[in-house]
Prior knowledge:
The structure is a homotrimer.
Chain A: H1 3-14, E1 25-38, E2 46-52, E3 59-69, E4 72-81, E5 103-110, E6 114-122, H2 124-132, E7 159-167, E8 174-181, E9 194-203, E10 206-216, E11 227-238, E12 243-254, E13 261-274, E14 277-288, E15 298-308, E16 313-324, E17 341-350
Antiparallel strand pairs in A: 1-2, 1-3, 1-17, 3-4, 4-5, 5-6, 6-7, 7-8, 8-9, 9-10, 10-11, 11-12, 12-13, 13-14, 14-15, 15-16, 16-17
Amino acid sequence: MKKSLLALAVLGAFAGAASAQSSVTVYGIVDLGFASTDTGAAGNSRTNGINSGGQSASRIGFKGTEDLGNGLKALFQLEATIAADTGSSFTAATGNSGGFNRFATVGLQSATFGTVLLGRQTSVVKDAYDQIDPFGDGGTVGAISNIFFNGTLSGDLGRISNSVKYTSNSYSGFKANAAYGFGEVAGSTSANSNYGLGLGYANGPLNVQYAYNNQDSTNAALANISKTKAHFLGLTYDFGVVKLHGAFADTKVDFPVGNDGKYRNYLLGVSAPVGPGTIFASYAVNDNKTTGSVDQDTKKFAISYSYDLSKRTNLYTGYSKTSNDANVKLGTSAANGSDPSIFNVGIRHKF
Amino acid sequence: MKKSLLALAVLGAFAGAASAQSSVTVYGIVDLGFASTDTGAAGNSRTNGINSGGQSASRIGFKGTEDLGNGLKALFQLEATIAADTGSSFTAATGNSGGFNRFATVGLQSATFGTVLLGRQTSVVKDAYDQIDPFGDGGTVGAISNIFFNGTLSGDLGRISNSVKYTSNSYSGFKANAAYGFGEVAGSTSANSNYGLGLGYANGPLNVQYAYNNQDSTNAALANISKTKAHFLGLTYDFGVVKLHGAFADTKVDFPVGNDGKYRNYLLGVSAPVGPGTIFASYAVNDNKTTGSVDQDTKKFAISYSYDLSKRTNLYTGYSKTSNDANVKLGTSAANGSDPSIFNVGIRHKF
Amino acid sequence: MKKSLLALAVLGAFAGAASAQSSVTVYGIVDLGFASTDTGAAGNSRTNGINSGGQSASRIGFKGTEDLGNGLKALFQLEATIAADTGSSFTAATGNSGGFNRFATVGLQSATFGTVLLGRQTSVVKDAYDQIDPFGDGGTVGAISNIFFNGTLSGDLGRISNSVKYTSNSYSGFKANAAYGFGEVAGSTSANSNYGLGLGYANGPLNVQYAYNNQDSTNAALANISKTKAHFLGLTYDFGVVKLHGAFADTKVDFPVGNDGKYRNYLLGVSAPVGPGTIFASYAVNDNKTTGSVDQDTKKFAISYSYDLSKRTNLYTGYSKTSNDANVKLGTSAANGSDPSIFNVGIRHKF
């Protein structure tokens, strides 16, 4: 239980505090474990070590809510990834903007009209696939964004700076969202900008999510801006004994000259209570359909088992293998055609 | 209300805790909004985007007080600027030392003798103009330090590392402070050092602040150290329906050889409750009086409207325009003689 | 008292909360003071300033414990050094990995089997000498690691990334620990790896600590890995009026080719209540016994006085002088044979 909730519970029980009281909540995850990573290259390609974020990115955050009355609330959130294996944090590493790279937002939530947030936040496409991926797009083993969309949204790339996002309230399970990320290139409203639209239905055992995202490239010559257009459609159905996950994505990179890039993605997954824990597995494909592309497809299989010690702490183990065709490298692959794999076992603690 | 205060309130009400109990307070501001910024350069000079700190720099801090008895307290404060639009934080950007760039202090406060703080903190000149500027030297629209002192104290430059500062208690409204920043250059007590003296009177509707600051330049050849000497005098008078703000500054840069730099500054400002919010406006001048300087003056007009949703959350909008003479560029100007402007609308939430 | 403890105390007293409740504790130290540092070089070698960490490194941390039942607990800790004199923090400076450079750990603690922690943490050798050094290996004046082990473990170098550490519970005062730090070099389990073993006995006035550490160098050519093998043995005995400290260390650097490095260290120290405070002093030697080494020994004397204003806040002053033989420079020495010294006076506040 968070400190602020504790304090509020005490106040609520004993002091009859006004409902508008709010506070900062300090929260986060420390996830560390042994990992054996193989890039699949010829020769000495395996690295053993203690890695951060095997199941979920280690992180620290600060967030809060203020009740403004009349069904209106102010919200803020600041959240940073932590490289807990070395401590290194708040610095810009690969696929990480540095600082509060995960969330840096403030906005308003209305019980009538929904929520508007400004700042750095998840794209609507990431909002969709996070709900569909058995691994919740988390960790180093199974995250869907690792090969979906040809890898262009992996890790921190599913987050947008300088953005405004609207999320509707839920109406009988239906919910929509829309986001716009400013490109902030002088004299151009297009370069580096980003927009997305999402629609979802979550009710009982069924969850269906659709999202579309357009990312314009940054380019000094505005006529040379390429546009990466990504559609995502996914669903999960919870049968109780097992939950099925299915996803499809279509990505097109419109280049001003030359062949456009075309990629299709498929994912089938399951999650199920097994013994004292839960098993997660997925099989995903990145099908490169660009005109002229030869042997550039990638397939990935991932499986993980999670065992809860409490609601906040669990042990986990996982394995994944990525198979690259002869002329492509995705995942942690070091060279075209190599097949990277990872095995891990660790502990994740939420605070 | 802060967590610590909550907890203390509970303790106070139910546990009869000793008055010396203290704690860490986590606090901050997230301020984000739409901004349209024009450098005033020829061609494509306008950038639209979501910017951090339109009204006040986004920040996160940790502070606390310990009652040592006999009217003595120990104090500490750690405060960092947040670039909430991209999340990037704790890194050294322009005019930002990185880390806890705003405050990193520890010291003692005596009910009899006043307060001594060590570390990184605001200069006494910044302490003065923060009180006089209608914009409190905050935000991207109207901050006084943007053109005052020829722009040499803008943003983070009004803060001093490696410093000791004494602030007296208030005597019938009179209050004095003095600061010294060590230069920390081996073998020289002068190079890079900084000292300042301030005196203020705040009583009823009147607030008068005077401060003087001397900054020695860092220079390998000690004989070449230049000294930037800045005087600031300002006052505000609150008539109730309107508060008037006036400021004057005189800056001299003593160069060991060649012409000394000379700058005069003037500011007139108002702040007033208008409708459901408050309006702030200022007109400021940087008059370059250096011998031989031609067409190097700058004028700036800024106006802002702030509407409170609560004590902690408000909406704001603002506009400012800086007019540079033909041979000077201050503010966000890209080229001599250009006239930068900014319009913004945003939300500021304090936690 | 920490916020979380406050909240828990309130809960415990009034709400009869379950024992498993836990929380985040925000804690730290801000230690700032005047320091006059002389590198001992010819000419202008003295620097005066306000320095951070004169007695203990300034730091901020987040930690917590979750009771999992059956004598099992989950633990995490994130702790970062703060350069409180300039605010600069979370960045990688000399002897500092950046981010949460002091601790970034998660693990399990069993009332039966002891504690296992993963991540970045202190080496077992540092765990030992921290207990024996009168200065607790803290601050800029007397830290033992400044010259022990030929300076190879000074500051942040006594901490290990990518590591797993086991610490036993205490049995009649006996306690053991063991750590392994993965080298994380592809294809090599040796390069850059680190392991250590420690054994201690602490009972009544006596504390004896032994630890051994082996650090393999990182080297592209695996046959060229050198091994730094360090033994440490220390004890303290508290006579009440005075506590005696003694330490011995033996370090051997096995080079694949050429002469191995050999270093012996000795420390004698006292700590004693004197007047209203406590005095700490030590005399330490780094004896370079490498074959062929001439005039490469270093001796260091350090003394400090600490005066408590409360349990959390104290004033301190200290002085140390390092004497380098003609062909060696350790400590803050700038050139072979120079004798660096430091004097400081400051305030340390724990929150």
